[in-house]
From TrEMBL:
Pfam family, one: NifU_N
GO function terms (MF aspect): iron ion binding; iron-sulfur cluster binding
Family the entry assigns: Belongs to the NifU family.
GO biological process, one term: iron-sulfur cluster assembly
Annotated NCBIfam families: SUF_scaf_2 (TIGR01994)
Organism: Salinibacillus xinjiangensis
Limits of the NIF system FeS cluster assembly NifU N-terminal domain: 10-130
Protein name per Swiss-Prot or TrEMBL: SUF system NifU family Fe-S cluster assembly protein
Length: 147
């Protein structure tokens, strides 16, 4: 597949998650983690809710508003961390962060799913914070859980 075709495919995946976000909404009950974060430089904001049971993320939902990169990344992240252990979710976040910063990453160990479509963001440093907002919220949430 040529670079142009791959770039077009990635753009389509990003826009699909933006227009049809997965896991948008809130979790019922009160026994879940909730993290609010924002990116003051561009106005993106997210409220991430996660259900963590026995060290595993059993459910994740988000609410918020922002650019297509930020909201599609939140959609992708909630999909990829479900049914993962907290350690696996944190490893995925590390791999994602390195990918977004333009570093060579080995995605064979853990699959980033559709989030790999965001790898081109590394070419736009101003958008890195948009792409990583939901992932940083997840890290903060599970960090609170571990205390």
């Amino acid at each position: 597949m040529s670079f142009d075709n791959l770039d077009t495919l990635y753009r389509q995946v990003i826009m699909d998650h933006y227009k049809n976000p997965r896991n948008r909404g809130t979790l019922s009950g009160e026994d879940h983690l909730s993290v609010d974060m924002n990116n003051p430089t561009c106005g993106d904001r997210i409220q991430l809710q996660m259900q963590v049971e026995d060290g595993k993320v059993t459910d994740a939902k988000f609410e918020g508003e922002g650019c297509s990169i930020s909201m599609s990344s939140a959609s992708m992240m909630t999909q990829v961390i479900k049914e993962k252990t907290v350690d696996e979710a944190l490893k995925l976040s590390k791999i994602f962060s390195e990918m977004i910063q333009g570093k060579d990453v080995d995605t064979d160990e853990l699959d980033l799913g559709d989030a790999q479509a965001l790898q081109g963001v590394s070419k736009f440093p101003a958008r890195v914070k948009c792409a990583t907002l939901a992932w940083k919220a997840m890290e903060k949430g599970v960090g609170v859980e571990e205390e």
